């Protein structure tokens, strides 16, 4: 579930291992390029965290962030998220 914290949408995903987490990130990168909206993310071993906000809108959450969040969720649905 995405949470609105400090003017950003945030969510963490946990996978079985680093390789799976990185494969997920690779697919998310393609979606981010397609949507021309690039997230802040962190990856430590099997955990990937995102913070979405729109810099051009004064670092506020916008419809672009919600579209990217939905795209990330669609990618995650193809993986076994723990």
TrEMBL record:
Catalytic activity entry: (4aS,6R)-4a-hydroxy-L-erythro-5,6,7,8-tetrahydrobiopterin = (6R)-L-erythro-6,7-dihydrobiopterin + H2O
Lyase recorded as keyword: yes
Keywords: Lyase
A matching Pfam family: Pterin_4a
E.C. numbers: 4.2.1.96
Sequence similarity: Belongs to the pterin-4-alpha-carbinolamine dehydratase family.
Protein name stated in the entry: 4a-hydroxytetrahydrobiopterin dehydratase
Upper lineage: Bacteria, Pseudomonadati, Bacteroidota, Cytophagia, Cytophagales
InterPro entries noted in UniProt: PCD_sf, Pterin_deHydtase
Transmembrane regions: none
Organism: Hymenobacter artigasi
Gene Ontology MF annotations: 4-alpha-hydroxytetrahydrobiopterin dehydratase activity
Source superkingdom: Bacteria
